[in-house]
Amino acid sequence: MADDRRLRFSRAGSAAIQKEFEKAISPIAEAFKSAQNTVDGLHEWWDGETADAFVSKFAETKQKVNDELNKWLESNIALMKKIEEIKFSNEAANAQRIRSM
């Protein structure tokens, strides 16, 4: 007997997981903001080219991580939307096939 759970799909569930993906990014963004504030204040106790190099490298790395997180978020949301689209278009097509029998 087939497992009925594999046949179900909920638009509300899909929307909820997309929101969870977005919420997962929020604490990371807050952590970066806090770290940025710390780095912005380091010139109070550290001067010179090494400090400037550190600040520059921090900003570069932060941007790369931010870009990757945004790609992750966009990719997962797009995937979930595509799965939803496929699921419901197949459902409609199958219903039409049944109606035409």
Helix and strand succession? HH
Mean pLDDT across residues: 88
Report low-confidence residues grouped into runs of 5 or more.
Answer: none
Count of separate DSSP helical elements:
2
Largest sheet: none
Instruction: Give the % helix.
Output: over 70%
Structural class given helices, strands, pairing?
mainly alpha
Distance between the termini: 25 Å
- The total of beta strands comes to 0
Q: Mind telling me the C-alpha Rg?
A: 23 Å
Shape assignment: rod-shaped
The number of domains is 1
Beta content comes to under 5%
Overview of this structure, please?
It is a single chain. The chain is mainly alpha-helical. It has one domain. Helices cover 80% and strands 0% of the residues. The chain contains two helices and no strands. It has helices at residues 11-40, 49-99. α1 (11-40) packs antiparallel against α2. It is rod-shaped. It starts with 10 loop residues before the first helix and ends with a helix. The model has no long low-confidence stretch (mean pLDDT 88).
Explain briefly what this protein structure is.
The protein is built from 2 helices and no strands.
Secondary structure elements and pairings:
Blueprint: H1 11-40, H2 49-99
Helix pairs in contact: 1-2
Defining traits:
0% strand, mainly alpha, 101 residues, 2 helices, rod-shaped
